[in-house]
Design a protein that fits this description.
The protein has 268 residues and is α+β, with helices and mostly antiparallel strands. It has 6 helices and 18 strands. The strands form 4 sheets. Strands 6, 7, 8, 9, 10, 11, 12 and 13 form an 8-stranded antiparallel β-sheet that branches. The chain has a 5-stranded mixed β-sheet with strand order 5-15-16-17-18, with no helix packed on it. Strands 1-4-14 form a 3-stranded antiparallel β-sheet. β7 (88-92) and β8 (95-101) form a beta hairpin. Residues 3-31 have low confidence and may be disordered.
């Protein structure tokens, strides 16, 4: 079983994690360990399905992993988890990337294990009771009559989330050979390494967004880019590290290496 964390991460908390304890430097004697960045709950953008859309059920092996995220990690009621895992998702041919873009807004990417190592899983979901009720109706019209409705109709369990909605942000896991999941809360490396705390404070004054991950990169690669977006009414200094003059600041990539997740930097 996976212990459930507090998955509601507010934007201001993420700023604190990014600028202070989120990047951890541990000193052992005279040696500094490489920096790590807390990743759990990081904002992600909406995942745009490929065109034309191919809707498919999730393969059984991956469905079991998603069920583990929903029931064990997020502690959703079994009825709600069953509705989400029963949905058809848009799929990319040859890549385990699946998305459902409308109530609930869900995407996940599975990385198969290679050479006896552990696999990987990236997951994000925005979920409200309205979406669950709508999908329950859709599934029943499609002939699935074995889906219970009581928990979805009352939806009392959703009140434990302050906004009345579940927004997980980014969740990362390692997948063991038996299919069990290990949450990954921190990854090696640092986003926006050339931006000092003083620079970051200035960017915040100018209305820069919180850092977010763009999942579209996973459609054709093993990485996702991380950005901050400027306020369209307030320009950023031209010498801002990573600023591409198109309205975003490039903070690096979250990469699946074949054995784990880490932050890397390269030219786009």
């Amino acid at each position: 079983m996976i212990r459930s964390p507090n998955i509601l991460v507010a934007a201001m908390l993420f700023w604190v994690l990014l600028l202070t304890p989120g990047t951890i430097l541990a000193v052992r004697g005279e040696q500094e360990k490489p920096s790590t960045t807390r990743i759990t709950g990081m904002d992600t953008t909406h995942y745009a399905s490929p065109s034309p859309v191919i809707w498919v059920p999730v393969p059984q092996a991956i469905s079991g992993m998603i069920d583990g995220v929903l029931r064990d990690y997020l502690q959703l009621p079994s009825e709600a988890a069953k509705i989400i895992s029963s949905l058809h998702y848009s799929a990319h041919q040859g890549i385990d990337l699946y998305g459902h873009h409308n109530k609930p807004d869900v995407w996940f990417r599975h990385f198969p294990a290679v050479g006896g190592s552990k696999g990987g899983l990236a997951f994000s979901m925005r979920l409200g009771c309205d979406g669950l009720r709508n999908q329950l109706s859709v599934l029943r019209r499609a002939g699935q009559q074995d889906l219970p409705a009581s928990v979805v109709q009352s939806c009392d369990w959703m009140t434990r989330f302050p906004t009345g909605r579940l927004e997980t942000g980014l969740l990362l896991f390692l997948v063991n050979p038996d299919g069990t999941l290990e949450p990954v809360h921190e990854v090696p490396g640092k986003f926006f390494p050339q931006i000092t705390p003083a620079m970051m404070e200035e960017l915040k004054i100018r209305g820069i967004s919180t850092p977010y991950i763009a999942p579209g990169g996973f459609a054709g690669s093993h990485h996702m880019w991380v950005f901050m977006e400027q306020d369209p009414d307030r320009a950023l200094p031209d010498d801002t590290p990573g600023y591409d003059k198109q309205g975003v600041v490039d903070g690096g990539m979250l990469v699946w290496t074949g054995s784990g997740f880490e932050i890397q930097h390269a030219e786009r």
